[in-house]
Design a protein that fits this description.
168 residues, mainly alpha, Arc Repressor Mutant, subunit A, 2 domains, three-stranded antiparallel beta sheet, two-stranded antiparallel sheet, 5 strands, elongated
Length: 168
């Protein structure tokens, strides 16, 4: 199944005009516009699932903190295809990442390669700065985030890291 631009537009329409909706409000609006979230078998509708993952992977929809992964948006899709939502979380359209044309890249890789590579349509790479990562960990303020933050600070303060950062 390919990405349907009209379907994408239908999924983004409730978020036009810089509207920020809770996930529950958003689901009600798209269902009111004829979008099926659940399939006839009670699992997430295949078309909705594929297009939701596309919106997420392209960061076309985000939460208020700017994260676009499904978990941050409030969607959890289990292995059995059943979806659950955290209805009080807010989502909005990320106007910076809306591109109305579909782009297909064919890449041949050989020899030395450095950079990011994404293969497929239902996965994503997230690029954030170290300062954004630190800020997010500090805001979280959980034992796990404090542990990760301590490790990150240790890596950043290491002389080798400092010499590499200084080279740029």
């Amino acid at each position: 199944m390919e990405i349907d631009r009209r379907y994408i537009d239908a999924l983004l329409a409730p978020l036009d005009g810089e509207r920020m909706l809770t996930l529950s409000e958003y689901i009600k609006e798209i269902e009111g516009n004829g979008v099926s979230v659940d399939g006839p078998d009670g699992r997430i509708d295949n078309k909705f699932d594929r297009h939701l993952r596309y919106l997420s992977s392209k960061s076309m929809i985000v939460n208020p903190e700017g994260f676009s992964d499904l978990k941050s948006l409030g969607f959890t899709i289990g292995a059995g295809g059943h979806a659950s939502i955290i209805g009080h979380l807010y989502i909005m359209k990320n106007e910076e990442n809306i591109n109305t044309s579909s782009v297909v890249n064919n890449i041949s890789i050989g020899g030395n390669f450095s950079g990011n590579l994404q293969s497929g349509e239902v996965n994503s790479l997230s690029n954030i700065s170290i300062s954004q990562l630190k800020e997010s960990l500090e805001k979280s303020d959980t034992p796990e985030s404090r542990s990760i933050l301590a490790k990150l600070n240790g890596v950043l303060s290491h002389p080798l890291t400092q010499s590499i950062i200084g080279a740029f």
